[in-house]
Write a structure and sequence with these properties.
Layout: E1 11-12, E2 15-16, H1 19-40, E3 61-66, H2 70-83, E4 90-93, E5 100-101, H3 104-121, H4 123-126, E6 131-134, E7 141-142, E8 153-154, H5 155-158, H6 169-172, E9 174-175, E10 207-210, H7 216-229, E11 240-243, H8 257-263, E12 273-275, E13 286-291, E14 313-316, H9 335-341, E15 346-350, H10 362-370, H11 375-382, E16 385-386, E17 390-394, H12 423-435, H13 456-461, H14 463-467, H15 473-477, H16 491-502, H17 510-516, H18 529-539, H19 542-545
Parallel strand pairs: 3-4, 3-6, 5-7, 6-10, 11-12, 11-13, 13-14, 14-15
Antiparallel strand pairs: 1-2, 7-8, 9-16, 15-17
Length: about 550
């Protein structure tokens, strides 16, 4: 059955989140951001020399947004807060709200030229920027390809090379032989000089990516997923890189040879490859998904129903996969918007008919990610063309630091694995909690209760390492009498205590059970009443305790 769009729901990794939860986590995030911004300030400023500047620095990216869209403005502000991107690296301009612009002149005057002018008139920013992120509600493609519609040339891909913009769109297409090691002799999978720096990029050459989606909530979700994946305490161990390179109808040859190269590459032996049929199979525990061909019909269950895996990237080698990224049902159900709606952090698709047979190369893309490089730079290196149609839709700052390796165990709540639990961990925990409420899985340091889920019990237990370092949760969170978590013992707690004692079958929150377990015997029952009454009375003002005597 076809999957219908749900634009008014909060959707992260396929889950629906209440307004209250969303508001609570936004407030937590804002508080943490205000603290961590002081720690992050200046960490990647102009003191970083071009030969040392890399794409993982937040101010190595220029974020482009549409001032004609209030949601685009909101997204840009929110996005900058997530990665601590300086305000001068945000560029807003009034643009059409449509995904498509009709002519080269339209995209030049309304998108490309304003961005170029901003960089040229701000040389101190231009000297740092390595990549351009085309943001939410910014047009995604333009003009008409030599092979007809739908779609057009990729706006994001146009930013990779701003040196030839006076040519017709088809004539601007360039081969990425300066950076893609596949074109070198002998061929490689990584740049010969190692990781690209700002000094390696000629003027007006940039990495590029796009964040747009069927809803603003899904645009947020791409970055929320990216931050979870980028956590060093996370790992792809036990997950699959699904592959299906066979196709007898859409390709001139019966297999996608570049995917064959990746699956058999001696440089990718650590990848856990899992074969599947991309036409029909619903995968589980996916890290990556590579397939071909199907142009439409992606709004069925193939990309959905898998809440377990990290879902780093989905890439289907077909035409028109990103002619719309704003609708899961439009144009028959394209690949990219359904991959994002299905829980993937990023997806690769074409904004038109790119023809066969050189698209972004999976072997090089994975080899770069395996090095711990960002998704934005990895995609750029793996690209075979610029000023063409292939587009990365996802957060370019995403990294996969632990790859398919097993990670060393970390303490409960230590989300970033740095040996302590602080505000950064609370921020990461809140994102993980938002993405996976009550979803079974292996959630590592976020699953403090070790019940295979992330829920309110884990949020409660997170208080111990955060507020009482070195103390056991049992010592500081049990037998408090504070069942509702307001740091008081009063009538509200008395009501919850009575309900808990009278209804022992209730699946009560851990906060209630631990708060009511006054004698520390592991359960809340009648034997806890005397100690609770004592705690309750000692917390009451003297004038109330003496009343009635």
């Amino acid at each position: 059955m076809a999957r219908q769009e749900t634009p008014n729901r909060r959707i992260v990794a396929g889950m629906s989140i209440s307004v209250c939860q969303r508001l609570m986590l936004i407030l937590v995030g804002l508080l943490i951001a205000s603290c961590t911004s002081l720690l992050n300030a200046g960490s990647s400023g102009p003191s970083v020399e071009p030969e040392n500047r890399t794409a993982d620095l937040p101010d190595s990216w220029l974020v482009v947004y549409n001032t004609n869209s209030p949601d685009s403005v909101s997204w840009a502000t929110w996005y900058a807060e997530q990665w601590q991107i300086p305000s001068e690296n945000l560029f807003g301009h009034p643009m059409p709200l449509t995904e498509h612009l009709d002519t080269l002149a339209d995209v030049q005057t309304q998108v490309i030229d304003p961005v170029r002018s901003y960089l040229d008139t701000n040389p101190e920013i231009k000297a740092k920027v390595m990549g351009i992120l085309v943001g939410y509600q910014v047009p995604g493609h333009y003009s008409t390809t030599p092979f007809g519609g739908p779609g057009g040339f990729s706006v994001a891909d146009a930013f990779k090379d701003l040196t030839d913009d006076t040519l017709t769109p088809a004539m601007q297409k360039g081969v990425n032989n300066a950076f893609n090691p596949w074109f070198l002799n002998p061929r490689g999978v990584l740049p010969a000089g190692g990781r690209l720096t700002k000094s390696d990029l000629p003027e007006h050459r940039y990495f590029a990516a796009r964040i747009d989606a069927p809803s603003l909530e899904l645009a947020y979700a791409m970055t929320e997923r990216a931050k979870i994946i980028s956590n060093p305490a996370q790992s792809l161990a036990g997950q699959c890189a699904y592959f299906d390179y066979l196709d007898t109808t859409g390709l001139p040859v019966p297999e996608w040879t570049l995917l064959v190269d990746a699956q058999t590459s001696p440089d990718l032996t650590e990848v856990n490859w899992c074969e599947f049929d991309s036409d029909v199979d619903v995968v589980t525990n996916a890290a990556f998904r590579f397939g071909t061909h199907d142009l439409t019909g992606w709004n069925n269950d193939r990309l959905y129903n898998d809440p377990i895996g990290s879902k780093v990237l989905a890439y289907n080698y077909n035409s028109y996969g990103a002619t719309t990224v704003r609708s899961t049902t439009g144009e028959g159900g394209r690949f990219v918007p359904n991959a994002i709606s299905g829980g993937y952090a990023a997806a690769i698709g074409s904004t038109g008919e790119p023809l066969c047979c050189l698209g972004p190369m999976p072997e090089i893309l994975l080899a770069c990610l395996q090095e711990g490089w960002t998704l934005g730079e990895s995609y750029f290196i793996a690209s075979t063309f610029d000023d063409w149609m292939w587009t990365l839709v996802g957060d370019p700052l995403l990294q996969v630091p632990s790859w398919f390796d097993e990670v060393e165990p970390v303490a409960p709540g230590d989300m970033d694995g740095n040996g302590r639990v602080d505000g950064r961990d609370l921020n990461l925990f809140s994102i993980s909690y938002l993405m996976n409420p009550n979803t079974p899985g292996d959630w590592g340091p976020a699953d403090l209760s070790q019940d295979g889920m992330i829920n309110d019990d884990d949020a409660f237990l997170m208080l111990a390492p955060l507020l009482y370092p070195g103390e056991s949760p049992d010592a500081v969170l049990r037998a408090t009498g504070d069942l509702n978590g307001d740091d008081l013992v009063n009538g509200h707690d008395l009501k919850l205590f009575i309900e808990l004692i009278l209804d022992t079958e209730t699946d009560a929150p851990l906060r209630h059970v631990w708060g009511a377990d006054m004698n520390r015997d592991g359960q809340a029952d009648l034997s806890d009443i005397p100690d609770f009454v004592d705690k309750f009375l000692h917390r009451l003002p003297e004038r109330l305790k003496s009343r009635g005597k």
